[in-house]
Design goal:
- The chain is α+β, with helices and mostly antiparallel strands.
- It folds into two domains: 170 residues, Beta Barrel (Cyclophilin); 64 residues, no CATH class.
- It is elongated.
- About 4% of the residues have low confidence.
Length: 275
């Protein structure tokens, strides 16, 4: 009996050792589908939280919660799932345990779109739509949420003009200091930092339902000239280095309403590679 117990402990130790992930600056993974293999380069040095989540789920070393049973599981998450959303000349998306795009691993984690160490403060006059939206989100939005109908009439007029013109440009008529004075919010207005990576052809990105709602769903871009309008809204954590022909094949599948392929594009397994 003691020998059996000892053998079980040895086997358990070997299993734990086998599952240990050695995270490097650049990592590699292979998505095995029923249409062929897709090899990925993963950027751990740029997006460590996202890559560790993807690798952990793929390898079965990260715990997740089954969306129906509520059971806590620690097994390979992606194996057997499908690419549930396919839009030609845009992207293929997978990673939902229900195959509908409505669920995930039972938790969310933050975006890694910007290098926050390179964030800068916006002062004085500003000119771009991006800066205007930052000023709005950090000064005006919390001000209106706190004051509602009692908000300053001049600020309300500026925001109404933005809504009418469907543009943030009217905000640039005044300086950051003007808005700080009006809102009585004196905190520094900071940019998000430098964009880590653009959403380009062949990149793999996290799908989400808004800021910091990442879970398990991801998409691979098939639009040749990229998706500039999505930059900063989805974490880009790697790219396809082999098998874009397989991605192209999947994006060309006939789809039903809701962009779901009529014929399942199955993720048979995702393997983490040494190189």
């Amino acid at each position: 009996m003691k020998k059996v117990i000892a053998l079980c402990l040895v086997m358990l130790a070997l299993e734990c050792t086998a599952k240990k992930i050695d995270y490097k600056d650049t990592m590699y993974a292979e998505i095995v589908t029923n249409h062929g293999k897709i090899k990925l380069e993963l950027w751990h040095s740029k997006t460590p939280i996202t890559v560790e989540n993807f690798v952990g789920l793929a390898s079965g070393t990260k715990e997740w919660t089954h969306p129906v049973s509520g059971e806590k599981l620690k097994k390979k998450y992606y194996d057997g799932l499908i690419f549930h959303r396919v839009i030609k000349d845009f992207m293929i998306q997978g990673g939902c345990p229900l195959g509908k795009g409505t669920s995930g691993p039972g938790y969310n984690f933050e975006d890694e779109c910007y290098d926050k160490s390179k964030a800068t403060e916006i002062k004085g006059n500003f000119t771009t739509d991006e800066e205007a939206m930052i000023v709005f989100n950090q000064l005006l939005l919390p001000y209106f949420q706190a004051n509602g109908a009692n908000a300053d009439k001049e600020l309300l007029a500026i925001v109404n003009e933005c809504q009418q013109k469907q543009s943030a440009k009217p905000l640039t008529k005044h300086s950051v200091e003007f808005y700080k004075e009006k809102t009585k919010i004196n905190a520094a207005v900071m940019t998000g930092g430098e964009l880590i990576a653009k959403i380009e052809y062949g990149t793999i990105c996290m799908a989400n339902a808004g800021p910091n709602t990442n879970g398990s769903q991801f998409f691979i871009v098939t639009k040749k000239d990229g998706c500039d309008w999505l930059n900063g809204k989805h974490t880009v954590f790697g790219k396809v280095i082999e098998g874009m022909d397989v991605v192209e094949k999947i994006q060309s599948l006939k789809t039903a309403p809701g962009d779901k392929p009529v014929e399942d594009a199955v993720i048979k397994e995702i393997n983490i590679l040494d190189k």
